[in-house]
Amino acid sequence: MVVEPRPSDSVHNRLIPTQRLARPHPLRVRTVRPRNGTVVVHVAGDIDAASAPPLWSLLEHQLRSSPALVVLDLAEVAFADTAALETLILARRQAEGQGVALRLVAPAPSVTRLLDLGGRDAPFTCHPDIDTALNEADLDDSADLDDTARAPVS
């Protein structure tokens, strides 16, 4: 008689929570104002249920300062869960309500996956680097000026 191992007996069929085994990366945030009306927020570490509320507070404060553009540099985000997605969506909604352009820079793979999951609820303008995000803002501003210059005067 041959006894076949049950799937539950196989080590290969067990789920190992690798996220829990990894050491958490503390959230680090640095803000820079490279020019008038522009805020760049560099975010690094883990964005989860514990760190998302303080991140939201900082973003909300920056948005209330009435900049024309907020750039979120997410290249160094090690981990992001649904709390991160919710924070980004809240920031986008507040920015839209205030007429502030919000751009994401180099979202880390963990953030990109969340944005993909968010679908229509998470439409963000993403750029490969900060310079590109800032230069696009310059192009947007010059397009607005061109439209104003061409507008008929009554």
Automatic annotation (TrEMBL):
Q: Which SUPFAM superfamilies match?
A: SpoIIaa-like (SSF52091)
The UniProt entry, under InterPro entries, shows: Anti-sigma_ant, STAS_dom, STAS_dom_sf
MF terms from GO for this chain are: anti-sigma factor antagonist activity
Q: Which Pfam families match?
A: STAS
**NCBIfam families (UniProt xref):** ant_ant_sig (TIGR00377)
Instruction: Give the protein family.
Output: Belongs to the anti-sigma-factor antagonist family.
Q: What is this protein called?
A: Anti-sigma factor antagonist
Q: Please tell me the species this chain comes from.
A: Actinokineospora iranica
